[in-house]
Every structure is written in structure tokens, then in C-alpha cells.
Design a protein that fits this description.
Elements: E1 12-16, H1 20-29, E2 37-42, H2 78-83, H3 87-93, H4 108-128, E3 132-137, E4 139-146, E5 151-157, E6 160-167, E7 169-172, E8 183-185, E9 188-189, E10 205-209, H5 213-223, E11 227-231, E12 237-241, E13 249-254, H6 278-287, H7 292-307, H8 309-314, H9 325-334, H10 338-355, H11 360-373, H12 381-399, H13 404-415, E14 419-423, E15 428-431, E16 439-443, E17 446-450, E18 452-455, H14 470-475, E19 481-486, E20 494-500, E21 520-522, H15 537-561
Parallel strand pairs: 1-2, 1-7, 2-3, 7-21, 9-18, 10-13, 10-18, 13-14
Antiparallel strand pairs: 4-5, 5-6, 8-9, 11-12, 15-16, 16-17, 19-20
Amino acid sequence: MQGDNDHIMTSEIAIIGSGPTGIYTLKGLIESPRPVSITIFESEAEPGKGTPYHPDLNDRAMLSNIASIELPRICETLVEWLMRQSDDELQRLGIERTAIGEREFYPRVVLGEFLHAQFSQLLAMGKAKGHSIKVKAAHRVRDIELRKSDIRLSVAAADIEPVEFGFDHVVMATGHDWPETTEIRPGYFLSPWPAPILKTISACRVGILGTSLSGIDALITVSTAHGMFLLDEQGDLQYRPLPGTEGFHATMMSRKGVLPEADFYCEIPYRPLQICTEDAVDELIRNHKHGLLDAVFELFKAELVSCDPDYAASIGLSLLTVETLALAYFHKRETTDPFSWAARNLAEAKANKERGYTVEWRYAILRMHEVVARAIPHLDADDLKLFHKHFKTVFVDDYATVPHESIQRLLALHRAGKLEIVALGNDSDIDNTSVERGAIVRFDGNDLRFDAFIDATGQHGLSARDIPFPTLLEQGVVRKAATTATLSLDGDDEAIVRTGGVDLDDQFRPVFEDDLSHNLYCGSIAFLLHKLPFVQGITSARDIGETISKAILETEAKAVLSPA
């Protein structure tokens, strides 16, 4: 940026991706009092929808797992947007006007339509404020190069040679990272997305790795190709197979063999925590060079006892450690038939929603996950490994509940004889090379053969080496996140080790010493999961977008005060 007091050049900002993170970044940027020039690159032909909600990538039966009340406002709330749609439009979306509510869940493609509408409104608002905003749909960024005074992007569109652009700031808001080729071997699918390809699976034995919402998404997509879900005379959901689909049977598999629980009612906005607070965790971060995870765990236990002493006593919380918490937390579910547990849990969740009753222990864990997350970037290598292996799974299970309708569908498929759940344990093997189609899953002396197999374990964390921009990799400015490792028993001998993810500052900028532009921002979810393991969903996209847009505008404000 160069200029003088009479004339300041407009800063050029690029956003790579127009999903939720890109949308919330755009929302923050157009609040700039000075005109900015924003270019948004979107690889899909329809910008503003995001991979998890795009109609070309998701089946219409796939449900989102975020209720309207949890969606951070963009220009309006989801309920407000739905209520102003015409009856014909609601019918197209498959939504009854009387069923619209802030605690309801909607299909992923409906959220895509909502996000697209909000994106369009932001574009109009930004231009009305004097900003220059260009949207380049069906344009894929192929390379990024940091230079001293700007950042170079190489961008390609269909049948056109890559074109280079220079920007003052670049935001990587690419969100989820799904493979372009899903069926890597006949009948073996590396991901549930794009979902339409799963519709080609015949009425056969289908194996699905993963029992979370991603696994449920895959299951429902295949199931609706071979049958339909209908309400019976009592109002219960049933699955009706189509003629000639007798061979269709699905097996969902995971290490524990448990299903996610149904979304539970709780008070929103959250009640404040009393013991495991942000201030308390920040105090531990300041004062614990070692043993930070255990100290945070003690806060967690104290808060849980305070909120729900009966539950704490039922799992023997006082005697539990970071390593044993998950064993106690999952014990009853792991030793109960998953469909029996799901039916009881669903009935409980429905009753609690009707009477507005909050289960305190679930609510406490839900509120604590973001507070505990503050400590994770400060854990040493050993504690970080323990957190990911043991402690994290409890939080993820608690907040990754699924819509009630998802559980109803699972129960309907099971009653129809079309679904079973298998616990694989800690030692299993998936063989997709010794069979012509699908895969064989081997565990505990068992061989399960599937004509089609879908890996639905969701978004995996990526590290610096996975950055898809070759010049950025060659420059060596994007490195794995660093933490300390203790080398001696007395704890005085330490080393810095790189453990995974990407090394970023608190404004999501890569950390490096080279004399190059520091205005690249990594808001791509997959690269953040190592040190920010709960960065999932639209609320996280809002937080990332707000942080990045604020950082850009603050940098620009400083440039105005101190022009080169």
C-alpha cells in the first residue's frame, strides 16, 4: 500500500472460497469505512453456497446438524429468510410454513440456498457502500506466491490458461477438503461427497465406515435410492423398500460401534460457567509450564460436579483422569444395543424439547468445550497427544449430536431389516485390493465383505505438507504447528517440535521470518483442526471470518496513518 494524505490507493483483497468462512469474511470487510476492492474466487459454478450445502454435492435428504437458533446472523436469520419465502418456494425446498422454527433442523441444500441469498445481499450492500466486489465463479486458484509487497495468485478457469493476479491480502477460505475423485476403486468410495455418485450403488451389501452425521448422510443417500421413508398411521417413520431391492443391506462401523445422540434441548444464549471459565483457563495457561492438561481437567471436573453432581457420581468422576474419562463416559452406551439406546435417547430428547428441560451434564460439557479449547494451543507435545486421543472425544460426542429425524431414519431402517451397527475395536483392517469391488473389513477374527464401501469418517486434519499451492510450499513459509517437548525428567530440558496442522498466529497468518508479505490468512478448516480441534461448522466460520476481516482492516488503518 502506497499513497499520501490526499489520495490513498484502494487495497486489493482476495477471498478464495465463497462458503461460510468466505461469507463471514466478506461481511466484516464491507464494514470498512474506506473503499476496498474484493475479488472472490469460487471453484464451483454457483458461488455463495459452500461445499457442505451445495446442491450438486449433497443429496436433498441430507440434514444439517445445526438448528436455526445456532446460526450466526448474516443479514437476517434463517427463520426470517424462510418466513419471507413464497409458498411455492417453500414447497420447492420441501418445508411446511407451519414447521418453521428456530429450534428446527433443515436439509443441507436449504442452508445452501439461505447462504447464497445472504451472499447476494452482502454483495449488494458492499457495492452500495462504495466497495468494488468481483465474483469469479468456476475459477480455481492453482498457486500462491508470497512476494515482498503483495501476493501472487495463479487462477485457472475452464479451457483457459491460468491468469496471474496480485493482491495486498489473500484469505484462504476453502473450507472442507474433499477429494475430486470419490470412487477410487470399483465400489470403494473415499468420501460420501459428492453425494449423487452414491445413488449409483446397486441394491447390495453396503459398508459405511463412520457412525457420525457423515456416515448417516451416506446411509440415507443410498437408502433413498432403494426405498423411501414414510409416516405410518400412528405417525411413526417407516422405511419402505422399492421392489427388487431385497439385496440392499447396510452396515455402519466404527471403533466403538455407538451412534451419536439426538440433539438435546438447552438454553441459548448459554448460561455462564461458574468454575471452568475463560479467566480460570487463561490463568492456568499463564502459570503452568508443565501439567497444563491435568490442571484444565481438574477445572472440568469441578464444573461438572457443580452442575450435575448425580451424573458426576454415576460415572465415578472424582477418580477419573484424562485417560479414563472417555471410558466411563461411553461405558453404558458401548454395553447397550445401539438401537435400543438410540430409541430411549430419542424419546428423552423429544420429551425434554417439548417441556424445555435442560440435562445439566450435557449442557455443562457443551459450554466447556470452547473454554477448554483455549488451552490446546499451549499444550506440550505429550499433553497434546493425550488430549486428541482421550479428552477430545467426549466433547466431540457431546456437541456432534444429530437431528431427531436422523435417529428416526436409522431406527426405521433397522426395523426394516436394512441396517446393523458393528463395533470394530482398536484393531481392524480394510482390504480393497483383493476384491474386484467394494472391500473386506477384518476385525477380531471376523471378515465382513461388502460390494460397496464408503469411508464416511468426515473431514480429516491436514498439515503444512498438504497445502495445495506448490510455490507456497517451495517458499517454506507454511510449516507445521510448533509446541514444546520435555526431554528430561526434571522438565528443564525442552525442545520445540512440530506436531501437525499449520503454524499460524492468532490472526490466522502463517508464522515465518522471511522478508515477504505477511498478509496471507489461512481460514481453511482442515488445516486448523490440529490446534483448534473444535473448529467445525458455521459458528466457527463466523469466528474465523470476523477475526480475519478485523485483522485486514486494522492493517489497512495502520497503513493510512503511516503511509509508505
